[in-house]
Amino acid sequence: MRAYRQLQPFADGSYSTSGGSAAGFDALIVAVDTDAGVTGWGEMAPLGAFYADAFAEGARAGIAVLAPHVVGADPCQPRLLVDVMDAAMRGQPYIKSALDMACRDAAARLHDQPLCEALGGRFGAAVDLYRSISPGELDAVVRRAQACVGDGYRRLQIKVGGDPAADAERLAAVRAAVGGDVVLFADANGAWTTSAARRFLLATAALDYTLEQPCSTIEECAALRPHCAHPLVLDESIVSLAALVAARRDAGADGVTIKLARVGGVTRAAALRDVAVDLGMTVTVEDTGGATIDTAAMLHLSHSTPARNRAHTVDFTDWVTVANADGLPDRAGGARAAPAAPGLGVEVRVESLGEPFFETS
Questions:
Q1: Which of 319, 286, 314, 298 is nearest to 155 (CA)?
Q2: What pTM was computed for the model?
Q3: Which of 3, 8, 135, 249 could form a disulfide with 358 if both were Cys (CB 3.0 to 4.6 A apart)?
């Protein structure tokens, strides 16, 4: 096993949410070499410590703790590997994510299967993508939205969660600028109180959009639901299978966003995805950050989600100035397919990673 650190600056400058901003991703990349001569790769990157219960330094320290427990295990037994990691380290799913991804990549390569087929199938020709629009001056936000639409994207995530009136004004301006056939999500990243979220809902009652994670907890979102006529998607609250079920049962969520690093990797994300599909929810599978390797994993999980339940995913590899692998299919308008080669289907640019900061065998 080898672990690398890679800094990945954002191509468009700092990326902001209601909780803070970051200049790029600080990624952990893991390679797992098997005795069959196959190497699996995994990647994770937290969006700064302000965003979630995860931070880059913790991931690098944690991989050294987990590695001795996993070396010698069979990558073709993913549930067993999850159990081994959970026994070795309580919680900390983000530390386990890249390692789980690398093992799933190796297992699919050993079986000569693209990961999406190993996870259940390839639904449709490609996966819709969205682009995220950070808060800012009204004119700048509108120009950014128009540029994304001009580049072929038909789904936009507008960051909100600040002053409800200003957020409502920006959302209305974007809707007017891009037209009615572009899908809009208003994503507060859980920043509002129920009072602020109700003010936003009143101000945007006439607009067509999906509301994403307006308040921090499932309980708060459940209290808001009777006042929300728009589709409701929960993201930051979805940390486990129990949370997903509560989001549907208690908050009446129409959809969920499942982030690989938040739930512990591909194996657990796929389990949550399958339950969400059975519950009739729309599903977005993505991650907290990364580049080409991580984008490939998100595409495979998304492409193996039935099209009627699939919302979209995100092409992080185009967000950053660093590509760490080759082999992703080209983006066609606002969509992209999962690679057709075995495993993640990408060839890692090992030379771009520098020297590993950790090795064991």
A1: 314
A2: 0.96
A3: 3
DSSP string, 16-66: EETTEEESEEEEEEEEEE-TTS-EEEEEE--S-TTTSS--HHHHHHHHHHH
Where residue 170 falls (left for φ over 0; alpha for ψ -120 to 50; beta otherwise) is alpha
96 is catalytic: no
User: Quick one: which H or E segment has residue 104?
Assistant: helix 93-110
Question: Which one of the listed residues 2, 5, 131, 159 is annotated catalytic?
Answer: 159
Over 80: is that where the pLDDT of 93 sits?
A: yes
Assess whether pLDDT exceeds 80 at residue 50.
no
CA-closest candidate to residue 79, choices 71, 87, 90: 87
Say if strands 20-22 and 15-17 run parallel, antiparallel, or are unpaired.
antiparallel
220-245 confidence digits (pLDDT tens): 999 999 999 999 999 999 999 999 99
DSSP 3-state of 237: coil
Residue 64 has pLDDT above 70, yes or no: yes
Residue from 259, 268, 300, 303 carrying the catalytic annotation:
259
18 confidence band (pLDDT: 50, 70, 90): low
Beta bridge partners of 232: 211
For 280-331, list the strands marked E by DSSP.
Answer: 282-286, 325-326
* pLDDT over 90 at 12, yes or no: no
Q: What are phi and psi of 129, to 5 degrees?
A: -115, 155
